[in-house]
Write a structure and sequence with these properties.
single chain; Thrombin, subunit H; 2 domains; six-stranded antiparallel beta sheet; 29% strand; globular
Length: 146
């Protein structure tokens, strides 16, 4: 599978059902060295706006990103990775997608309710009419806040 087949934005779920949004390829392949070393990409499930599910099996470091060998003032290092995808993919139904997303939001509710709007997010997901609309809205909100 080639990363160019993804229709962005995408949502990802790690093995602990933590959610991460990526607006574009760069958001998906740039990470901290620490996250990479802790295996962030191993088993990462990616769902694009068309409802296609892809599994990332692993990732390889390509290069450091930015000046100072990727280090910033907080002494974290940013790196670029190459993703190694499982070659098969499946399509997820809107209902299964909603179930997975609601489960993840509820599982990590203390994190997602920090802004006090988890109830609104859950209601939006329950009433949404497409995977595309859910991912676009939630990824926009995520990057607007962070």
């Amino acid at each position: 599978m080639n990363i160019n087949k993804l229709d962005f934005p995408v949502i990802t779920f790690d093995k602990a059902n933590n959610i991460f949004y990526a607006r574009n390829t760069k958001d998906l392949i740039i990470c901290s060295k620490r996250s990479f070393e802790k295996g962030f990409y191993k088993g990462l499930l990616v769902i694009d706006i068309k409802g296609n599910e892809y599994l990332i099996e692993d990732a390889k470091k390509v290069e450091n990103v930015g000046g100072f060998s990727g280090f910033n003032i907080f002494l974290s290092q940013k790196i670029k990775v190459e993703l190694i995808f499982n070659q098969s993919f499946t399509s997820v139904s809107l209902e299964k997608f909603k179930e997975k997303l609601l489960y993840a939001y509820n599982l990590h509710s203390s994190f997602w309710d920090a802004g006090g709007d988890l109830g609104d997010i859950i209601n939006y997901i329950k009433n949404a009419y497409s995977i595309r609309s859910i991912i676009e809205k939630l990824s926009f909100n995520f990057y607007k806040e962070y």
